[in-house]
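Researcher: Sequence recovery benchmark, item below. Answer with residues only.
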């Protein structure tokens, strides 16, 4: 049987007092137990807080605690080890189909001096609203100094994954005209060569769950051809 607010208000029923002496006594006992329990919890929390403060403020105790728990501090900024990446030379076979390509600068690359390479794109007449690209870099040869957008129509977000750089471009909402890539410079990459020799810089098709792709204004995914470049460092 369901009792609603309207059922209760519709009947002229009266109820007698419900606070009997036995109920009042039981209620008092319950309140006393709750009060004791809360006081106990408060004391435990205070003891833990005081103990933690003593340990943290005492270098010797702090060191012993870390050794006991097998903890160690990790300095992320000093973690510069990169996994060896296999980067492969790739050529674009059909310039009339969508592609994305890395091209070197006109000046020579020199050890210790910043060197710019540019990523160009062609969308085959499609209006592009976003893209993802995976850049394979030989970290034994180069340090990546910066990654920036070459197009005012796109804002980019770059992430150094160690094995590669992941770049995402998103069209600015203020830009209303179509953005069709026609051998358009998309991204500037500043490298700093570390040694003499020849290194390869390429766009990678896939890495784990990531992939290089264009997305057009109808939310169609376009997989472009990829092109790489060899850079000779003097």
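Model:
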């Amino acid at each position: 049987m369901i009792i609603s607010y309207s059922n209760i208000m519709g009947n002229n029923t009266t109820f007698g007092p419900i606070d009997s002496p036995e109920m009042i006594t039981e209620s008092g006992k319950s309140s006393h137990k709750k009060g004791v329990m809360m006081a106990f919890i408060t004391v435990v929390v205070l003891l833990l807080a005081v103990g933690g403060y003593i340990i943290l403020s005492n270098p010797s105790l702090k060191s012993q605690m870390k050794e006991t728990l097998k903890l160690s501090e990790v300095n992320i900024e000093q973690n510069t080890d990169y996994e060896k990446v296999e980067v492969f030379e790739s050529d674009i076979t059909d310039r009339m189909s969508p592609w994305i390509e890395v091209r070197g600068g006109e000046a020579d690359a020199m050890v210790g001096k910043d060197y710019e390479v540019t990523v160009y794109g062609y969308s085959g007449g499609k209006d592009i609203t976003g893209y993802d690209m995976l850049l394979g870099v030989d970290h034994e040869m180069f340090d990546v100094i910066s990654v920036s957008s070459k197009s005012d129509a796109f804002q980019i977000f770059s992430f150094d994954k160690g094995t590669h750089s992941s770049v995402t471009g998103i069209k600015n909402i203020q830009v209303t005209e179509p953005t069709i890539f026609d051998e358009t410079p998309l991204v500037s990459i500043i490298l700093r060569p570390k040694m003499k020799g020849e290194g390869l810089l390429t766009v990678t098709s896939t890495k784990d769950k990531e992939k290089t792709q264009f997305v057009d204004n109808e939310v169609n995914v376009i997989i472009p051809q990829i092109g790489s470049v060899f850079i000779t460092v003097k």
